[in-house]
Amino acid sequence: MALNASTLDQLAQHLENCQLQAQDTLKITEAHPEMDWDDAYAIQDRILASKLAKGARVVGYKAGLTSHAKMKQMGVTDPVFGFLVDEYVVPEGGEVKVSELIHPKVEPEICFITRTELKGPGCHIGAVLAACDVVLPGIEVIDSRYRDFKFDLKSVIADNTSASRFVVGGRIASARDVDLRTLGVVLEKNGEPVALGAGAAVLGHPAAAVAMLVNHLGRRGQSLPAGSLILSGGITEAVPVQAGDNVTLRIQDLGSVSVRFV
Ligand code: 0L1
Ligand code: MG
Could you tell me which residue ranges the Fumarylacetoacetase-like C-terminal domain spans (predicted)? Predict the structure, then answer.
């Protein structure tokens, strides 16, 4: 670790305040270029600890930057991982208040729910499919706290990978009965298709993103508990949204899920 405990505390508090007050900031590596990967996840851990201390509940995890479209859009080369808490949950068909966010974008994702605990290292697609009964469509609303979405990987990890809201719904399917690589995905904004893709855009198979998450947790001495929801990462580029927009995600064989921005 390159940063001391009080700097980690101060950066975590700053990023959480930016999230809660819908205030943007410069990427934190500008002031702390020596920050390392462990520092980045330690800041994310501190944000989670602060939320848990205020009564939040962890509902799952997310993988981000798992598709080439997203990596290219953001100018980075590796996936990142974050946590999901209950304050991010939006009901199917529900509203997201744009005034609570900085510059939201939406991403179409294939989501998994684990039936049994998963542990790394050595987790692979087969173990993920064996442990997950259910897959379903999800729209992630990302909202980087960094000005104009300009960041590097360490800054974005510290910022809990831009997590802000998500909605899951549609039709639940068995993770083993659908070919997640070939599922067609259509993201619509106000009735118009704005992004198209297929499951294989996520690391060749969306379950590969879950396996990477499990191996990441394993390196940190953690496991993925049974009953976790996992957002496996945006299949297409993220699409900006504003108040008045209605967004629907349709995934072949998995139905649709919608959210409104007010
Ligand atoms: O979920 C994601 O793919 C987002 C990861 C963080 C990068 C971003 O804000 O686009
Ligand atoms: Mg995402």
Answer: 83-261
Q: Residue 162 C-alpha to ligand 2 middle, in angstroms? A: 8
Could you write out the DSSP letters of every residue in 96-164? Answer: E-GGGSSS-EEEEEEEEEESS-B--SS--HHHHHHHEEEEEEEEEEE--SBGGG---HHHHHHTGGGEE
| d(CA 10, ligand 2 centre) in Å | 26
Four-residue CA torsion sign, 119, 123, 125, 127 = negative
Does residue 70 surpass a pLDDT of 90?
no
pLDDT in tens, 126-159: 999 999 989 999 999 999 999 999 999 999 999 9
Terminal CA-to-CA distance of the chain, rounded, Å?
42
> 93: domain CATH number?
3.90.850.10
Domain around 98: 57-261
User: What pLDDT is stored for residue 80 in this prediction?
Assistant: 95
> Among 24, 44, 74, which residue has the most ligand 1 atoms within 8 Å of its CB, making it the best to mutate?
74
Residue 174 lies in a domain: yes
* Structural domain includes residue 230: yes
Alpha carbon nearest to ligand 1 atom 2, residue: 64
